[in-house]
Specification:
Blueprint: E1 2-6, H1 13-17, E2 22-25, H2 56-61, E3 65-71, H3 79-87, E4 92-99, E5 102-107, E6 112-120, H4 125-141, E7 144-151, H5 158-161
Parallel strand pairs: 1-2, 1-3, 3-6, 6-7
Antiparallel strand pairs: 4-5
């Protein structure tokens, strides 16, 4: 299953939804993660907050390919995208295991294929390097076999990258 998480406005929703099995809009119409860890322990993979991200752990956890479309924010995800990723911590469990010769949380849904980040907006070379490293580490931590980062000069290039 291909999931696209994006922070673009609603005029792009239909175009993005046509390119995936599930589209998640980082539109800010949800609460930020409260850090209660209930999605880890009390009710696995389900957030206690009853909003549009209640099932986000299951959606992202079942994705073979996760594509994140985000505006550059100093070499990291936009705040809206970061909020969604924070709310998806339940894709793993509190237990630990070794992956890539490093300690990581045990995956609740198993391994995935591709963690792809498509970045738009002005960006420096240092921020590009930061984004590549961030995507690589996120992919390893969340059980993706590979990561890819694409930097767009213009949003008109987006369709070809989805």
């Amino acid at each position: 299953m291909k999931v696209i998480l994006y922070d673009l406005d609603e005029t792009n929703a239909d175009r993005i939804a046509a390119r995936c099995d599930r589209a998640l809009s980082a539109d800010g119409r949800y609460a930020p993660c409260q850090g209660c860890f209930g999605c880890w322990t009390k009710h696995p993979a389900e957030c206690k907050m009853k909003d549009t991200l209640r099932q986000v752990c299951r959606v992202i956890g079942q994705a073979d390919e996760l594509v994140i479309v985000t505006r550059n924010l100093y070499g990291g995800y936009s705040a809206a995208v970061k909020n969604v990723l924070d709310r998806s911590i339940g894709t793993s469990t509190p237990l630990s295991t070794y992956r890539g010769r490093q300690m990581h949380h045990t995956l609740r849904y198993g391994r995935h294929d591709l963690w792809k980040v498509i970045v738009y907006g002005e960006i420096t070379e240092a921020e590009q390097a930061s984004f590549r490293y961030l995507a690589e580490r996120n992919a390893l931590n969340d059980g993706y076999q590979r990561s890819e980062v694409v930097f767009l000069k213009d949003l008109s290039e987006l369709e070809a990258q989805l």
